[in-house]
Amino acid sequence: MPGSGKQAKTKLKQSLSSLLIGVVALLLALACGCLIIMIMGKSPLAAFNAIYLGSIGSKAAIGETIVKAAPLMLTAMAFAVTFKCGLLNIGAEGQIYMGGMAAMTVAQVVKGVPYPLHMILCVIAGMLVGGIWGGIAGWLKVRFKADEMITTIMLNYIGLQFANFMVTNVIRDPAASLPQSARAPESAQLTQFISGTRIHVGVIFAAICLAFYYIFLWKTTAGYRTRVVGMNQHAAHFAGINSKKHVVLAMFMAGAFSGLAGVCEILGLQIRMLQSFSPGYGFDGIAVAMLGNNSPLGILISSLMFGALKAGSNMMQIVTQIPTATISLVQGLVILFVVASRFLVDRAEKRGNKKLAKGGNR
Asked: What is the pTM of this model?
């Protein structure tokens, strides 16, 4: 019992430390953003007021924040679940395209199926194909020891180009002048259920996935073994854990999360598939996961924050003529400051441990 109390205090201390690092990183990034806006000759106060109006200033704005946070939450989990297994999944963008393409293909090809069965089939197809796309990188890792960072980046390009091929040749709307699919039938769409907003059923699916992420990693044996593999594969091997199986499983889960993000974008918002339909959710999810320290609560909070920035950036550009790329710059600075802060904290902890070890030796 005393040991468990000490562990709880340690976890609380680590959580508070991670939260503090995230807050400091965000404040520093916003301060740099203010400086850049001032250099551009614009007013930071006007910019932040526009972001407020576009993100939480009305019912519709809150809805935009939520629908933009959902795919960010999913791609953040796609990075976090592999990180917990000692992997770096940089392939969420390609997994988004494969998932969205699969969902739209099922929406167009499968006919005569009523709602909600048709919609559920599309969601399953998107998650399954996204999971397989992620699982390929996991299989290459365990079979040929291929670096997952390289393979997932390469699979991004393959997934994007294959999705573009499909929308240009296979599921293209013949009546459209540009490469795009026809509108998804209503039976396949992720229904919007709050009037005055674009909040759709995909938001609920994302919340279910977040709950599953927490339960799997911290409440199941398989999740515990996945985290052990991430901490030390050699120790996991000697403990009788099949690390190869968990590597492939983690990558499959990551692909399934990202595939669902693609489904949300295609069948929840755009209702048709275009070339290059993702605004970079796969890469933004890495920043969300890092800011949230890969924890369920942290991912939820940081995805809502990044969703608010994305929703507000459009209003900022309209009102103040400050380009939305400024917000992307702020997001990049958040990553930079989070990584730098954690590096400095880890370095300070190592120095403190060395001093304690020297004192104990004396």
From this structure: 0.92
